Amino acid sequence: MSRNKLSINYAKSMYLLTGKKIRSNLAEEFLVRLGNHQIKREQSVKYIGAIVDEKLTWSSHLKQS
């Protein structure tokens, strides 16, 4: 990224654990770090206009519509 003069906006960065059966203890122990910055975990994210949740269902998207 530095070679192409790009930077990460750590305040807007987030991650999503996906799958049908996500164990809650795994989710609590799972941390993502980029350098010295911890990235926050979300249970649903908006991506290209669609809301995706961690179980890959449309329920979060339909609730908002």
Strand content: 25-35%
H-E string: EHEEEEH
Q: Helix count?
A: 2
Radius of gyration from the alpha-carbon trace, in angstroms: 14 Å
What's the number of domains?
1
What is the average per-residue confidence, as pLDDT, rounded to a whole number?
81
Shape: flat
Largest sheet: 3 strands, mixed
Strands ordered across the widest β-sheet: 1-3-2
| Poorly predicted runs | none
Q: What is the β-strand count?
A: 5
Helix/strand/pairing class, anyone? alpha+beta
| N-C termini distance | 36 Å
Proportion in helices = 10-25%
3D structure, described in words:
The protein is an alpha+beta fold and 65 residues long. It has one domain. The chain is 18% helix and 28% strand. It has 2 helices and 5 strands. The strands form 2 sheets. Strands 1-3-2 form a 3-stranded mixed β-sheet, with no helix packed on it. The longest helix is centred in the middle third of the chain and has 6 residues, at 24-29.
Short note summarizing the structure:
This protein is an alpha+beta fold. The protein has helices at residues 24-29, 59-64; strands at residues 14-15, 32-34, 37-41, 44-47, 50-53.
